[in-house]
Amino acid sequence: MCSEVSKWQESVSFQAKELFQTTKHSLIELGYDGFTFSLLADKLNVARGTLYKYYENKDELISSFLVFEMNEFLLELKQIDTIKGFKRQFDFLMWKIDMRVRRGWREAINAFLIS
After folding, report:
1. CB 40, CB 23: distance < 8 Å
2. Domain covering 2-114, topology
3. Tens-place pLDDT, residues 61-70
4. How far apart are CA 48 and CA 33, in angstroms?
5. Contact between 8 and 50 (Cβ < 8 Å)
6. pLDDT (tens digit, 9 = 90+) per residue, 8-55?
C-alpha cells in the first residue's frame, strides 16, 4: 500500500490522507451500499476516472483505507515505548483504544445528525 499511496500523492492534487478522510466520512454518512466512486469523486472535486486509475473498485479502496487507518493507529501506539511500567503502559493502551472508539461514535452520530 505504501507505494500505492506515494503514487497517488505524486499524481493528484490532494494527499492520500484527504482521500481516506473523505472515504471515512462518506462511509459513516452513507454506509457501504450508499458509498460510490461518483459521490466520492464529487466530494474530492475530481473525475471518477481518477479514482479508478488507482483502485479497481470500492472494495479495493475501502481495504486500502482500513490498512491506512490501522497504520495510523499503530503509529499512535508506538508512544508506549516512552512510558515506564506495565500499569502505566496498560492504562495508556486502554485510553488510546477508548479514544478511538469514542471518536468513531462521535463521527457516526455527527453524520447521522447532519443527514
Report:
1. yes
2. Arc Repressor Mutant, subunit A (1.10.10)
3. 999 999 998 8
4. 17
5. no
6. 555 555 688 899 999 999 998 899 999 999 999 999 999 999 999 999
